[in-house]
Fold this protein.
Amino acid sequence: MKRWLVVAVVVLLVGGGSWLVTHRASAATGTQYLTGTVEQGDVTASIAATGTVGSASTYSLAFGATTQTTSTGSSSAKAAGSSASSNGSGSTSNTLATVNVVVGQHVVAGEVLATEDATGTAANVASASAAVLSAEAQVQVAQSNLVSTRAKIAAQTSASTQIAAAQAQLAADQAALTVDEDRVATANAKLATDLAAQPPASSTVLAADRLAVAQAQQSVAHDRSAIANDAAALATARNTSVTAAANAAQLAQARAAVAQAQNQVATAKAQLATARTSATATTITAPVAGVVTAVNVTVGQAPPSSGAITMSSDALTVVANVAEQDVTNLKVGQTAQVTITALGQTVPATVTTLPTSANSSSTGSGAVTFPLSLTLTSTPAGVLPGMSASIAIVTATAKNVLNVPTTAIQGTSPNNTVQVMVGGTPRSTPVTIGLSTNSTTEIISGLEVGQTVVTGVVNQAVATTSGGGVGGLTGRTGFGGGAGGFGRGRAGG
C-alpha cells in the first residue's frame, strides 16, 4: 500500500502539479476522475540498487615490481626489474636507505616512497659484464675452429684423384718388383758361374756376388711391402663413405661448439640485463595518487621481494547489489547517479564491469543479488571507501517524446488504450506506447500534447467515508494494468 502511495505522489509530481479532479455529474455513480496531461519531454528508465564505495585499485609495491588489483578482484603485475637474492628467502642483496611514507599518508603519482642502497647490485653488474666478455671470447674460439675444419675438408683431393694416385703407385711398385726380381736372378746366375769357374774365382769376387744377391733380395722384399700398402690405400680411396662420414662428424662437432658458445653468450647477456635492471630499480614510487595502507620495510634491513608498501588509489568505485531480474538490462558504459548516503551528495558514475555470479551472501535467501561495479566520474569531498550509496542506473532513455503518467495506460500491448477527457466525459482512445517506467510512459501515437487523460477514479461514497473528497485516496481506483515497463526495483523518471 505504501508503494502505491509513493507512486501516486510521483505521478502527481511528474505531471508538474497538473493533476485535475473533474467531477462527473452522475447521481448513479458519484465518480470523480484523477487526471493528468499529455506532455512533451524525456522518459528515462533506471534500475535502483544499493552499494558500497571502495577504491578502484590497490597496489602491492616492491623494488622492481608492482602488482595491481582492481575492485573486481582481477590483478596484473608490472615488473620493472628483479632483485638479486642473497639469502634464498627472496630478499634483495641491498638494504633500505630511506622510507618516506607512513600508513594513512596521501601520496601523488610518481612520489618516491622508499629507496635502496645499491652497492650490492653494482657488484652484480660488474660480475655479469665479465661473464659476457668471457662467453663472447669462447664464441670466437669456436667459430675459428669451425673455419679451420671447413678449410681442411675443402683441401682434401677428390675421391677419383685419390683412386688414380693409389693405382699409379701400385703399378709403379709392381714394376719395381719385376725389375728387382730380375736383379736377384741375374745376381744368383753370376754367383753360380763364378763358383763353377776353373780355376775358381777369387774370394773377393765371390763376396761381391753374394752382396749383389742380398741387395737384390732386399729390394724385392721392400717392393712387396710397398705393394701391400698400395693395395690398402687403393681400397681406402675407393671407400668414399668413410671419408664423408669423418668429415660430417668433424663439421657437426665444430658447429655444436659454436652454438653452445652462443647460448652461453645469450644467457650471460640476460643475466647482465637483469643485474642492470636491479641496479636501476632502487626506488619505489607511487604509480597513482592515493593513500598508503601498509609499510612493511625498515631502514637498514633487506626489503621483501613483494608487498614492501601497499596503497589504494584515489579513484573510487562503487559495487552495487543489483536484483537478479535487472541483470539482463545492464551494459558496460551505462550512466548512473550515485548518492553517497553519509554526505547526501549525488555524483555521476559509469558501469565498468558486469556481474558474473550472484553474491554469496544472497545464496539461499529470498532475494538474490548480483555485484555490479561502477566508476565515479568525480570524487566528492569527504567520501571514503566503505561508505554506503544508493544507485540509479539508466537503462533506457526516450528523448523529447510525448508521455503520460503510466497509471493512465490500460490494456496490454499492442492493444493499449487511454481514457481521454472530452467535455468532462472519459473516452477510450487506442494508443501505441514505447518506453514505460513505473511513473511515465512514452506515447508513440494516439495522443496530442495538452490532452487530459484519466489516471484513476475516486468513488465519491468511499472517499467521503474516508475523509471526504480527493484527499481520501483509500477510495482511489487505479488504471494502468498491463502497461508494460521494466519491473520492480526500478526508479522511473
Notes: DSSP finds six helices and 24 strands in the chain. Confidence is low (pLDDT under 50) at residues 1-29, 80-92, 462-477, 481-493. The longest helix spans residues 240-280. The longest strand covers residues 388-405.
